[in-house]
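for the writeup, i need someone to sanity check this before i put it in the appendix. the sequnce is what the collaborator sent (i think, or maybe the updated version? ugh). structure was predicted straight from it, no edits. if anything looks off just tell me and ill rerun, i have time this weekend
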Amino acid sequence: MGFDVHHIREQFPILKTTMHGKPLVYLDNGATTLKPKAVVDAIDHYYEEKTSNVHRGAYQLSSDATDLYEGARVKVRDFINARTENEVVFTKGATQALNLVAQSWGIHNLKAGDEILCSELEHHSSFLPWQYVARVTGATLKFIPLTEEGRITVENTKSVLTENTKVIAINYVSNVMGYIAPIKEIAALAHSVGAILTVDAAQALPHMKVDVQDLDCDFLSFSAHKMCGPTGTGVLYGKLDLLNVMEPIEFGGEMIDLVGDVTSTWKDAPYRFEAGTPVIAGAIGLGAAIDFIETVGYENIVAQELKLRQHAIAGMKEIDGLTIFNEGAETGIISFNVDGVHPHDMASIYDAEGICVRAGHHCAQPLMKWLCQPATVRASFYFYNTMEDVEAFLAATRQGKEFFSDVFF
């Protein structure tokens, strides 16, 4: 059976709802994605029939919950092709995962004179932890120059790479521009000077197959809620030899091996980083989201997103006074502004028409400065969006342009 977007949409109950009396058109998938009933059902099953703590109880219910939780870890392992499930650490999101690398690996391994490479393309969660590490350790934070289009490239990475480079911290897919970075090649560059590569893949996993062994990245972080899973759940992938020498940054139950009066020892990864009761329902929900995405198929996801994006771009280019900042992006993100109109004002027009878009700096203020914009409007498509959604978006764009032209010009 081929890809049927209308059949897909039937599995997302929220798409049957309205906003301001208009059919809901959800185009803020870069912020979070909608949840299919299969994910909600998996979470409900845990809470309704398997509620108990994991790893602790010597009774059947706890054993069942542990199987579900650890089964989700195995699903993540297979999904990203990690060598072992012990390389999969559950977190509360990509932000916590990225911070864990900086706080645990960075602070203990960097010193004055060392260099950290980031870029102006980064989400704050990828950039700010290393800004803090640089301040604490005396290391130097440097930026990989972006191309005129706003991309991270191998050549521009080489231009700032030195023998003092110890960390490269970049995104796989920009949450504003939608560009795909050459992670595999940059991993090779990092390793050529003895540096590690930590990757923010929050915008990559929802839209493309990721193989961490092929990429050879040292760390990779992503969130469940951007790929049809629940909020408050994420993953840090790390090479096992690195994880097992990193110090935990949270302490408490389950992450310990032996506790003494003066010193204690920690379990091996991943458990040393999962102090306290973990994100049980969230991990189970993520496992269900992985099952759902694999059923849909990445080839269908990519094809649907790009078809919608190309149609939207073609329509937007027919509207005078509109600037698109990422026309050549490889994913379903479009960042743009209507000349002379603040993005928040445009967002209010979309909202009145039942259309959800993002307007603001998108947690990427250095990139806004690079673009010379205070903010942008971002429409981000996913595989459950339709051509009808695109047409509604284009109609609202034209309406907003005409409205503000009448008001201000």
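The CA atoms of residues 163 and 193 lie 5 Å apart. The chain has 14 helices and 17 strands.
thx in advance!!
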